[in-house]
């Protein structure tokens, strides 16, 4: 039987991922007059992390108190524990101001107080700097606003249910991609002068996560295989009090944080004793100075000592508060909780640290260009701006700022037309695999292997790491790769779950290994990377690590942190002047 | 399952399956109650431990943010991440009836303007749109 010809799309700019960063990139490239193909494996503007964001967005607007982007920048660097790429952090903070105003002009609905934008002081900020959309609606409002703008751009073609499987390289330049059209199961070729990876982070690598399905780090895998370097991959941010048990239906697992702060929820161990303050000194000695890190440390240490809750976390209790206060503080949420069988006046819930955000990512310059010509990155997929720990409120800001900037940069790329025949030749072996059905079933279900991978990462590459544990993780990842086997399981039909899980697993194995190898090499504790066998922060490690693949082999290298020449000026640290 | 008690406590999901316009069949899966707090949890458990070929779609997993997991439960439209199966009950799970079926519980839910129709595309390098 003759094989069907392969569909081929041509565009100026291919944007992979239609969350906040991808939609911003598409808008900027279109406004610069370029045709854009905005592709997402899920629905446009509904998958990914942006729509899940409940909390706040940082920008030095000065709407409530005097502020300047340099203050925001200083806080960002402080949170990053000496590892921020200062040039990128500056872009984030400086351009964040206009980005947030731009969203305001598009009627995103930032909350207002006395006619001015309301700004709250999130942890780690020196003043009220964070805007939000009521009630806990920041992410959905940002996503909806960008969706509406993107839909109005005639030059942006939106294509959902299109999974980008591989970037195509010609003479060392990314010239397009091979994709899987999920509605049909058929491969599709895309030719593009420039490609932007905006696929977000990798939190789905962990058993306990706040991730959507598409946060398996596929953009990192695409970048690695295309020859780009990843930076700071050992820094995975854990959110200390993610929901653990009982299973809550219809809630984001990071829901408890605002209520805990607002109402004074108490964290208790398995014996119902307060414990966080007990770790204060230890935590400070080990460099856990921020609220986030300290609670994570205390909860996991308590569990380790056998004083965890039944599901392996800590209790969060609001029982000391009168019902009226709870009802006022939680609003309609309290009835939703009751429908889940949770009466906060009587019962406690279990919380534990969950993977929430990735500081590491694709190495870029301030044009958001990677080391590979034709390839750019935006949003959480970018590494470097947040160093060893991200400041609260910077994630949406960086999505918009880096997205717009990457879109403008990609729009400046020289036109590069690659024929369909050439693209087909470049797609090579993976294209052949995608066009074949793997006969027989799989020995191990890719979905089950994927769950095992999440266990490995949670147990050995979580917030606390050791040489032995990380080495064990590498061994287990190797076994999982063997269990998946070299052939691509599943069939060629529409929405084949076995095939999709296997493609995800391939990418996740690669990215998990990049995280683990980077974590094994960094023999110190800093920010989100905590080594129990190297509990101190070590000045000799004030360097970034870059990891890449060369001819199928991992290459791990150290590089000096990118500093700005005007660092002294930008810093608020007046006492430091000589 | 040989323990009648655990069987009683299981959730039974009768899932209408098939591809495109092709024939349909029902597969019945028994899922432990604590693995099926939501219908989506139950389906994910089936994919992991009973049948990795069962197709359904979702993205945000928990929060009813992505609106992808729409399907029919006992004849009513639900979001699988919000619907709660009843212990001991057998539920009929079907794809949305008013959307073209792709596979099992996956239907074409994306807006027309955000879907790629391969039959409308060139294979020789025709420009999109």
Write a structural description.
The complex is a heterodimer of chains A (578) and B (129). With 578 residues, chain A is α/β, with parallel strands linked by helices. Chain A is 35% helix and 19% strand. Among the domains of chain A are: 116 residues, Alpha-Beta Complex (Flavocytochrome C3, Chain A, domain 1), CATH 3.90.700.10; 101 residues, Methane Monooxygenase Hydroxylase, Chain G, domain 1, CATH 1.20.58.100. With 129 residues, chain B is of the alpha+beta class. Chain B has one domain: Beta-grasp domain (Ubiquitin-like (UB roll), Roll). Helix content of chain B is 13%, strand content 25%. In chain B, strand 3 and strand 4 form a beta hairpin. Chain B starts with a helix and ends in a 22-residue tail after the last strand. At the A-B interface, strand 1, helix 4, strand 7, strand 10 and helix 13 of A face helix 2 of B.
SSE diagram, text form:
The complex is a heterodimer of chains A (578) and B (129).
Chain A: E1 7-16, H1 20-31, E2 36-39, E3 57-58, H2 69-79, H3 86-105, E4 112-113, E5 116-117, E6 130-131, H4 138-152, E7 156-159, E8 162-170, E9 173-181, E10 186-197, H5 218-225, E11 230-231, E12 236-245, H6 256-263, E13 266-268, H7 280-285, H8 291-304, E14 314-317, H9 323-330, H10 333-339, E15 349-358, E16 361-362, E17 375-377, H11 394-411, H12 420-434, H13 446-460, E18 464-465, H14 467-484, H15 497-521, E19 530-531, E20 543-550, E21 553-560, H16 567-570
Parallel strand pairs in A: 1-2, 1-10, 2-7, 10-17, 18-19
Antiparallel strand pairs in A: 3-6, 4-5, 8-9, 9-10, 11-16, 11-20, 12-15, 13-14, 14-15, 20-21
Chain B: H1 4-9, E1 11-17, E2 25-31, H2 39-49, E3 70-73, E4 76-79, E5 90-94, E6 101-103, E7 106-107
Describe this protein with a few key phrases.
heterodimer; A: 578 residues; alpha/beta; Methane Monooxygenase Hydroxylase, Chain G, domain 1; seven-stranded mixed sheet; four-stranded antiparallel sheet; 16 helices; 21 strands; 19% strand; disordered C terminus; B: alpha+beta; five-stranded mixed sheet
């Amino acid at each position: 039987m003759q094989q069907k010809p392969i569909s081929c799309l041509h565009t100026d700019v291919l944007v992979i991922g239609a969350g906040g960063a991808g939609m911003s990139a598409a808008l900027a490239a279109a406004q610069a007059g370029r045709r854009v193909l905005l592709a997402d494996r899920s629905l446009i503007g509904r998958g990914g992390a942006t729509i899940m964001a409940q909390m706040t967005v940082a920008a030095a607007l000065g709407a409530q108190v005097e502020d300047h982007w340099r203050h925001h920048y200083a806080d960002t660097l402080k949170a990053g524990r000496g590892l921020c790429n200062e040039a990128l952090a500056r872009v984030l903070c400086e351009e964040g101001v206009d980005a947030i105003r731009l969203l305001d002009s598009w009627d995103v609905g930032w909350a207002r107080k006395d006619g001015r934008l309301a700004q709250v002081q999130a942890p780690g900020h020196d003043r009220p700097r964070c805007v939000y959309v009521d009630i806990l609606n920041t992410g959905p409002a940002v996503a909806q606003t960008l969706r509406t703008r993107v839909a109005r751009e005639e030059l942006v073609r939106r294509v959902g249910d299109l999974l980008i499987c591989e970037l195509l390289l010609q003479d060392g330049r990314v010239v397009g991609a091979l994709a899987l059209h999920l509605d049909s199961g058929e491969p599709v070729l895309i030719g593009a002068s420039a490609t932007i990876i905006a696929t977000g982070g990798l939190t789905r690598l962990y058993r306990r996560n706040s991730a959507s399905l598409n946060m398996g780090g596929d953009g990192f895998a695409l970048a690695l295989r295309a020859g780009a370097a990843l930076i700071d991959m050992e820094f995975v941010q854990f959110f200390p009090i993610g929901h653990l048990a009982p299973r809550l239906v219809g809630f984001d697992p990071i829901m408890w944080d605002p209520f805990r702060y607002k109402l004074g929820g108490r964290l208790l161990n398995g014996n119902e004793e307060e414990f966080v303050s007990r770790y204060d000194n230890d935590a400070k000695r080990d460099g856990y100075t921020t609220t986030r890190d300290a609670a994570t440390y205390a909860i996991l240490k308590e569990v380790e000592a056998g004083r965890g809750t039944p599901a392996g976390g800590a209790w969060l209790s609001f029982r000391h508060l009168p019902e009226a206060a709870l009802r006022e503080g939680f609003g309609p949420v309290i009835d939703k909780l009751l429908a889940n069988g949770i009466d906060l006046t009587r019962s406690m819930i279990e919380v534990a640290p969950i993977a929430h955000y990735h500081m590491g990512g694709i190495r870029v310059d301030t044009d958001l260009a990677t080391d590979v010509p034709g390839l750019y990155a935006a949003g959480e997929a970018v590494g470097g701006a947040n160093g060893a720990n991200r400041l609260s409120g910077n994630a949406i800001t960086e999505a918009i700022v880096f997205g717009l900037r990457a879109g403008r940069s990609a729009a400046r790329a020289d036109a590069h037309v690659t024929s369909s025949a050439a693209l087909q030749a470049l797609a090579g072996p993976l294209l052949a695999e995608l066009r074949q059905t793997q006969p027989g079933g799989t020995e191990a279900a890719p979905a089950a292997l994927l769950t095992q991978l999440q266990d490995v990462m949670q147990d050995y590459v979580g917030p606390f790491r050791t040489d032995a544990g990380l080495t064990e993780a590498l061994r287990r990842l190797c076994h999982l790769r063997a269990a998946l086997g070299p052939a691509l399981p599943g069939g060629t039909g529409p929405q084949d779950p076995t095939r999709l899980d296997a493609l995800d697993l391939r990418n996740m194995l690669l990215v998990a290994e990049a995280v683990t190898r980077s974590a094994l090499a960094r023999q110190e504790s800093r920010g989100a990377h905590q080594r129990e066998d190297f509990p101190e922060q070590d000045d000799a490690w004030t360097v970034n690590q870059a990891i890449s693949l060369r001819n199928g082999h991992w290459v791990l290298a150290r590089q000096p942190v990118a500093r700005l020449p005007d660092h002294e000026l930008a810093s608020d640290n007046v006492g430091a002047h000589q | 399952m040989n323990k009648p008690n655990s069987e009683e406590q299981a959730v039974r999901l009768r899932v209408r399956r098939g591809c495109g316009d092709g024939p349909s069949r029902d597969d019945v899966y028994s899922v432990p109650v604590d693995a099926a707090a939501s219908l989506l949890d139950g389906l994910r458990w089936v994919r992991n431990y009973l049948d990795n070929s069962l197709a359904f779609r979702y993205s945000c997993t928990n929060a009813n943010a992505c609106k992808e997991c729409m399907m029919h439960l006992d004849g009513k439209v639900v979001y699988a991440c919000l619907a709660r199966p009843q212990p001991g009950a057998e539920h009929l799970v079907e794809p949305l009836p008013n959307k073209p079926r792709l596979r099992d519980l996956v239907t074409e839910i994306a807006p027309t303007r955000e879907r790629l129709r391969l039959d409308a595309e060139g294979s020789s390098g025709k420009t999109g749109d």
